[in-house]
Amino acid sequence: MIHRWLFLLILSLPTTLWADQPPAAPAAIFDAAQQQWLAANPVLRAGVVLQPPYAQLDRRLHRLTGANVEIVNTLAALMGVQVRWRTFQTPEELEQALLNDQIDLAAGLSQTPAGLRRWVFSDPFLRVSHLLVGERDGSGTVDLEQLDERLPVALKGTDAVLDYLRSSYPKLKLEVTLSPRQALQRVVNQQASYAVLDEAQLGRLSREPEFLGLAIVGDIGFPQLLRVATRRDLPELSTIIDVALRSVSARDLDDLHNRWLPPSYLEQESSASFWRGISLLLGLLLMFAVVLALWLRRQRDTLEFRLLAARHEVELREIARDALRLSQFSIDNSTVGILWVNWDSHVRYANHAAEAMLGCHSGGLVDRPLRDFEPDMSMDRWLNLWRLARKGDEGPPSFETECLRADGSRLPVDVSLSFLQYRDTEYLVVFITDVTERRRALAALQESEARLQGIASNVPGVVFRLERARPGDPALFAFIGEGSESLVGYRASTLLAPDHGLRSLVHPDDKADYHRVQDQAFDSDSDWHWQGRMLTQSGESRWVDIKAMARRLADGRVIWDGVVWDISDNKRNELALAESQVRLRDLSAHLESVREEEKARIAREVHDELGQVLTVLKLETSMCELGFANLDPGLRERLDNMKKLIANLFQLVRDVATALRPPILDAGIASAIEWQARRFEARTQIPCLVDVPEHLPPLSDAKATGLFRILQEALTNVMRHAEAHTVTVRLELLGDSLHLSISDDGRGFDPASVRADSFGLVGMRERVLMLGGQLSLDSRPGEGTLLRVRVPLSECAPDE
């Protein structure tokens, strides 16, 4: 019976816990602006193409299922919105619905250059591999590099898969079929050695009996990356989708992949149902244990509270007794001498510090008059001090004097008096402080000031101090060294005048910068450094360097100690060096322009001249084949080899011309960036997200070529060093300048540790300076790298 009631209690827990659940609300991962947008848009229109297993419609239950449906429902639950589904038979219908403003987002799309003009794509949530399928003969994994024309490969793939296989494995004999089923049937009928299918197609066809003898023998290494796409006119939605998608754990995405893409069997489904039941039962038991633990904890907290209250009352009583003992101990062992003196100037109590100061033994001061320690303390003076301390109108009386110690020596002290009435008796409490060390410190300070004055007078510059009493008050010169006369021709006394100072000597053209730097330092109580020109008394202009260090004192004052140095000779050398650097940079820009022009000329000659020669050679070879191939079987084979060599030479000529100057640059920098990103993605299998504006103002050929070369160098560095999973390239038009940013999520590095001979970064930085722009690099170990480039649209000199 006990077990039965326990089981019923466990079953009732979910009903109790879930009875009054609040309505769905956005998760805490969104900021306030994003939650406000979601509240204003509680319903989103989602489109999906019916293609199992990504999306399939159960018409009997009127329910959509599939990987794309599940990921959108998961994101909608995180965003706290409802989804209205629209289904389509083809991707073209989905695109038309987007143009007709009938959908807001769609899942399961692949990023393409054409799609980037209509959609904003998220990071990939599903990676669909293209697998190589063959006979189940136990031979293991197949390497595509080792396959030749004797082993045909059948496939029904997209243009991207065909282009990838033809460019990566030119020896393969590819046979395109009308459907994935026909590709597998060719393998079963031994008309083809292998077939290429993606995971979704294989999972749908692997259940059929005629294909049970096939097995996965390899991966072609060209996955299809599925993303969530949103309308371009809803940038807030794309940002929210990215935040929600990042909150979905990698394990959940792996479960989504394993649930919909691999081949599934009835045995696996039944096993999964069994383990789900076990997990549900364990979850119910865990909830019951948590409720029981919470109840026991509440009972324990109640008992602990009562125990702490009783303990606190006992501690208060102990504290009161300890405070009394501590007060007496503090007075007895204070480092300040304390005397209780009655109206007739006789001592009634003295602590240990007072006895030690006056050189008396314990109890040796009691009942002795103050005249024994201060000969000038007459009775009239004492009574006058008594009246002043008792009235207390002007604060406690205090003075400095010298006390007579028991051995006859003199002790300089500070004396402070305070009136005390204890029960029916009145006392004056006399506090005695030994100031021997203070007098020594004062003498040392006076000596130090004299030494400072001597040093400041011999420094080859002007030493000064500025002081400000309180925030908002003007800063005034407290000290100026005598070196001012040799630097600017004015004596220190002249510069110390309130209406003079260093500001009056600044060159008129540099006054604005001087005031800005100095006022900024005054407002933030920080150090300040300024270089500029000053006018001497004779009207001569001199370059000076002013450095001042700020210090905040305990009384709230802020002081600036600084030095004014004459750097006229160094500044003239610096200006000459800067002019030389500008000339060298102009020469480098000219040489780079000449080199790019020479590359373009060589590319045109290679493409035109060699292309014409190869075309004529190909025609001659074809004529030989038509005229003489039938006469000798060996001659046909040699002619075929010659044609293949000519085709390879055609490709080599195109590669060389493209490397010298890509023809895509003639279509504009935006198209060139998209083309380079796709080449990088095909070469490295690293997803590369590209965001470029549709319409750009005309850009000079030099700047377009420079930006393209910087992108090439940055992507080369990512491929060699970053070990990244995703790369993002963004081109923006902000004001009168173009901003190019390349970011990756790789291992990153410390920019300060880059070697001086790292010519990649040096070359990019110099190229940006030649274009009149700016380059910034932000990277940390383990946090990826972000490269930003800003190039002005108008022709201007590079920033120094």
Could you characterize what this model shows?
This protein is an alpha+beta fold. It folds into five domains: 32-260, Periplasmic binding protein-like II (D-Maltodextrin-Binding Protein, domain 2); 290-326; 334-439, 2-Layer Sandwich (Beta-Lactamase); 459-661, 2-Layer Sandwich (Beta-Lactamase); 663-799, 2-Layer Sandwich (Heat Shock Protein 90), CATH 3.30.565. Helices cover 46% and strands 22% of the residues. It has 21 helices and 28 strands. Strands 1, 4, 5, 6, 7 and 13 form a six-stranded mixed beta sheet that branches. It has a five-stranded mixed beta sheet with strand order 10-9-11-8-12. A five-stranded antiparallel beta sheet has the order 15-14-18-17-16. Helix 17 (568-628) crosses helix 21 (759-770) and helix 19 (669-684) runs parallel beside helix 20. The two termini are 88 Å apart. Keywords: Kinase, Membrane, Signal, Transferase, Transmembrane, Transmembrane helix, Two-component regulatory system.
User: Using DSSP, what is the number of strands?
Assistant: 28
Shape: elongated
CATH topology of the largest domain: D-Maltodextrin-Binding Protein, domain 2
Report low-confidence residues grouped into runs of 5 or more. Answer: 1-23, 264-273, 796-800
Proportion of residues in β-strands: 15-25%
Helix content: 40-55%
Q: What's the structural domain tally?
A: 5
Instruction: Summarize the biggest pleated sheet.
Output: 6 strands, mixed
Q: What is the level 1 CATH name of the largest domain?
A: Alpha Beta
Structural class: alpha+beta
Give the CATH superfamily of the largest domain: Periplasmic binding protein-like II
Terminal CA distance: 88 Å
Examine the secondary-structure arrangement and name the CATH architecture of the largest domain: 3-Layer(aba) Sandwich
Radius of gyration: 44 Å
- Average the pLDDT over all residues and give the rounded result: 78
Number of helices: 21
